[in-house]
Amino acid sequence: MLGAIAGDIIGSVYETHPIKYTDFPLFGRSSRFTDDTVLTVAAAYSILEKVDYATAFKTFGRRYPGAGYGSSFYQWIFSPDGRSYNSWGNGSAMRVSPIGFAFESIEAVLEEAERSASVTHNHPEGIKGAQATALAVFLARKGENKDSIKSKIEKRFTYNLNRTLDDIRPEYRFDVSSQGSVPESIIAFLESKDFEDAVRKAVSLGGDSDTMACIAGGIAHAFYREIPENIVANVKERLPDEFLEIMDRFVDIYGL
Q: Is-above-0.90 flag for pTM?
């Protein structure tokens, strides 16, 4: 989970100022957590406290209303009925990494990812993005190699993971759809050599940088196991105590 949050904070600066290179400062005065972090923590809280996802997302969303939510999600937070709004966006994928750590079979991970997505992102592509991300985290955590992770994600979700970042980068633009950002985020992980490299590569595509780095970072953390201490320190100093407490509890039970 920390890897996803680190990706969000590192990518936050570049969401509105996209870049096409990997040699950039990881942190600056404007680096901050966004809705990706808030909802990742909310997903972990839901798992820990056995609270339904809709309640957890609404509770944390209302508590941190300025985190940069999409307009449909922001309206959903404060709506009395809380009906799903058929989103195909990548918001379902960016918050799902705790599920890949907390559940112990492919079937359970896919079922739980769908449950977490469908409270808002009940469009097939929204569910698919969440499931693909959660499964990639799970497979990485279980020690599968990159070829195996790639093959299983491609086979189950029909994402094209045979493209390279060099092929994608020149024409890639900001895209909040699951189908237009989740595969690219997974490719950033697949081409990486370590955690930091995965995040840098995701940001370098010049798209929805915080969310793509969040997705790639969550998978990379599960795969590489370690995050450089300078990144950990910079991330933790930017998070509320409430988030740190939930993250510590989650790690105590589920690891990483």
A: yes
